[in-house]
Amino acid sequence: MQVQVKKSFHQSFGGINFIEEDIRKINFSSIVTQTLGSRSFLAQYSYADLLKTIFYSKLIGGDVLDDLNVLKQQLQDHPCLTIASPDTIEYAFQELVQPIKKEATTTGKEHFINEHKGFNRLLTNLCRQTGLLKQGKKYTMDYDGHIIENTKIDNAFTYKKSEGYYPVLCSINKLPIYLQNRKGNTPESYNQKNIIAAALEQCIAQKLTVNKFRADACCYEKNTIKYLEKNNITYYIRAEQNENLRIALEDETEWQPALLNHCKVEVCSIEEQLFGEQAPRRIVAYRRKLSNEQATIFDNNGYRYSTIVTSDNEATALDVIEFYNQRGCQGEHHFKELDYDFSWNKLPFNNFQLNTIYLYATAVAYILFQYVKQKYAGVLSFVNNAMQLKNFILHFVTLTAKWVHTARQWVLKIFTTKNYAPVFET
């Protein structure tokens, strides 16, 4: 094999040039400044520059902040885009940290909570400005927590006996709209009503309509359900099984056969008094017959029961169950992407507050990724909405390119057999 070496620079991830242009068109810098404020006039990089730097590092498959050095080298010939160093990212993030809120319960347990109101407004605003969420449409909001296991010095033990943080996230169509970071000992059920209320207020401020809500048993709480009912939001919440509910289900005779996720089950709908109140609420339940599985205390008469409390009195029992089960794709699946594609499982700092800012920065990157992916999927045959980050990098971002200055203007030359023409103006 004969090899010829030509010493000239070409970008390996030329697709970033098109992404930078499209992010500029949505006035990303202005959106960030409105919510996070401005840095000192002496600062070389704005907050928007730093957030884009984090995003672009993920677009080259970067997992750690040191990968920014590779990104800086790859984009060295860009006429106006500059990439911050890892040290600059850490220094600037220190400007954004918020004080930790320490709360103690009546039992003496201490909770450590950290959030940034400006970043939370940015998440919702960015979803609307990019068109990922639109005014006039009705949306379902999901609430869930996620354990991020780590060995940081300021972590705490989780209920799974592992160490880490336990952030909670409100999302719509897998898009994060509200984030609060907690240490591992704080369950997702803690202070849930206030978080849900704050997320809904942000949606109202952006004129986004939320008419449905889904959550697991962490939100099976009287004040949360009454708040949702007061605000006319239809809810679908996993119900905790108690003795009265188990007896009611055992006595129920109108079980209907159904097929759920290719499994034979039986479903029913009953009215039951909850939380010591007189007014009954609808409980939708399904059960499946145990085969060789180990029975638990929640299993009765050879069946395993699952229950959902809902204010939807029109949908059939099976429709309620199937809609609730969509949480797995729309309310939880994005945690895997945030972990493995956006480095939630590799937090860079040894500090709870700084890592909170990093969680927000990567959540912004996740929204930007969904925006450009959706935009290009509509015009390019080699991009589709189902792509995860690494597949998107392989098919779109990986592109040999070079900036040249000719006739008093900068021109981007690309070397490919793919048709990128729909994403740029000729």
Concise summary:
This protein has 426 residues and is an alpha+beta fold. The chain has helices spanning 15-25, 28-36, 47-58, 68-74, 86-96, 117-129, 192-205, 222-230, 243-251, 317-325, 327-330, 333-340, 352-377, 389-397, and strands spanning 101-104, 110-114, 138-145, 148-149, 156-157, 163-165, 168-172, 175-182, 209-215, 234-238, 256-260, 263-273, 280-289, 299-300, 303-310, 400-406, 409-415. The mean pLDDT is 92.
Low-confidence stretches: none
- Report on the biggest sheet: 12 strands, mixed
**Morphology call:** elongated
Radius of gyration, rounded? Answer: 25 Å
Q: What's the mean pLDDT score?
A: 92
Terminal Cα separation, in Å?
Answer: 39 Å
- Helix content class: 25-40%
Count the E strands: 17
User: Can you count the helices?
Assistant: 14
What's the helix and strand layout?
Blueprint: H1 15-25, H2 28-36, H3 47-58, H4 68-74, H5 86-96, E1 101-104, E2 110-114, H6 117-129, E3 138-145, E4 148-149, E5 156-157, E6 163-165, E7 168-172, E8 175-182, H7 192-205, E9 209-215, H8 222-230, E10 234-238, H9 243-251, E11 256-260, E12 263-273, E13 280-289, E14 299-300, E15 303-310, H10 317-325, H11 327-330, H12 333-340, H13 352-377, H14 389-397, E16 400-406, E17 409-415
Parallel strand pairs: 3-9, 9-10
Antiparallel strand pairs: 1-2, 2-8, 3-7, 4-6, 5-6, 7-8, 10-15, 11-12, 12-13, 13-15, 14-15, 16-17
